[in-house]
Design goal:
By secondary structure, the chain is mainly α. It is globular and about 60 Å long. It comes from Microbacterium horticulturae. This is MFS transporter. InterPro entries: MFS_dom, MFS_trans_sf, TM_effector. Its main location: membrane.
Length: about 425
Amino acid sequence: MARLSREHFIDLRPLTTSPAFARLWIGSTLSGLGGQLTIVAVMLQMYAITHDTFAVSMIAVAGLVPMIIAGLYGGMLADAFDRRVVALLAASVTFASTLLLAVLTWGGWENQWWLYALSIVNSAANSIVQAARSAIVPRLIPIELLPAASALGGISSGLMIMAGPALAGVLVAVSGYGWTYTIDVIMMTSLFLGLWTLPSIRPEGTIVRPGLESLKDGWRFLKRASNIRVQYLVDITAMTFGQPLTLFPAIGAVLLGGGAITTGVLTAAVAVGAFGSSLFSGPVGRVRRHGLGIERAVIVYGAAILAFGLVLGAAALGWFAPADLGEHSANVALIAVGALMLAISGAADNVSAIYRSTMMQSAVPDAIRGRLQGIFIVVVAGGPRVGALYAGALATVTALWFPPLLGGVIIMGLVALLVRMHPRFRAYDALHPEP
């Protein structure tokens, strides 16, 4: 029984095998936690200024094109120069923009245009950091430990989103936006420690200078890599139609009640699911058919998002609602059920992410890994931004509960169709990785 229990828990060998990976993981986790404070605080501040859900959704949408450009170019930089230096320089830009946001807020000079502009800078710089950092990981640990490293990434993301949004909601409610941004600035210094102590990590193989030829080289590889293409399409589908995050401020204000606290709880619920699935990821790391695992995980994700839409529909009908529901009272019963559905979605998304990340890092050659990681970051981060536009625009013309309800149905149907059309993806074997 003891042996069975150990096998079900997360594999910690990447942390003990590679001190460099351990430092990078710790630094990224702490800085990411601070980053979540700013993400949630910016959404709440934008809603406080405009009282407009669409304006909140445009925070993510405005950064989409710069993020795509930065992700692609960052991947090219990571395949041409020392990946440690690339990540350090991009992290410095993120630090400076967050510091400016704190200064503007403390001085009372913030407005919606500053929030948009600095959010754009942050998303672009973070894309470069993530592309370089993801390309670094396979050089720090053995290939057989990549699934465990991806699961540790789920633990990291879970801690960030689980504690960050809830803490942001409390900080904004108790001490205001200035302190929230300032704490992020302080926590971001840990990322520099994790990156600074890394060895020099230059790409292996033929180096192509950043530019059009480098982009064409990456595109030629992607045309041959059908498994990588399908996982991109599956993830874009899930993130476009299954990301109700930008609706949370309005849901907390006018539908479920509880205001900023409800926004933090709902956002954190996704991370609780991701954290739990990573904590018990032992069996996940032993699965060989990663394509099939991605398909099943994303279908569960879609079902959970659909169920969350049904919960919001029940709230719109007034089920279990206190008589004085408003900003400072809450429909506790439906918040709890909605949080459970979001936790399930977070767990399913994290299982999919473990398989997708492992496939990317093991099936793609090192010489082109930065560029593919850049595209991967664009897909992972760009999908939710398109999803923010989908959710915000559709909620504006219909109701808050309709985008997740329709989105869940679309996800389950499209993903099942995509994978059925690509049997090679479903048959992917982790012991013989092929892009």
